[in-house]
Amino acid sequence: MAKMRDPRLSHQSLQVLRVFFDEPKESFAGADIWRRTGILAGTLYPILARFEAAGWLDSDWEQLSASEAGRPRRRLYALTPKGYNKANEALAQLGIIGRPAWAQ
Questions:
Q1: What's the pLDDT tens digit per position in 1-31?
Q2: What angle do CA 34, 65, 16 make, to 5 degrees?
């Protein structure tokens, strides 16, 4: 079986990883990530798909029905342990972890 390569880490994909890394136990919808990063859907969703295919993220539909929520159901993405380790490694190599927010 061929070993899956890690996704390429662009500036935008690192921004997405940072959202998850800052709150590793939380799940985020694409709209939540967009609000935090400003990355548009045409770039954001392919990044999320690559991270999910690599095993860095898991996703599932929220439990609320559309009628209960008063809006379409959202797909929620969560960091996996592998994703946490990969994010930690990538962000540490760039010196992003541990810096004050104003210095980033």
A1: 445 688 889 999 999 999 999 999 999 999 9
A2: 20
pTM, rounded to two decimals: 0.82
> Which of 3.30.70.100, 2.60.120.200, 1.10.620.20, 1.10.10.10 would CATH assign to domain 11-65+80-98?
1.10.10.10
How does DSSP assign 28-87, residue by residue?
EEHHHHHHHH---HHHHHHHHHHHHHTTSEEEEE-SS-HHHHTS---EEEEE-HHHHHHH
Q: If residue 27 lies in a helix (H) or strand (E), which one and from where to where?
A: strand 27-29
CA angle 87–88–90, rounded 5-degree value: 65
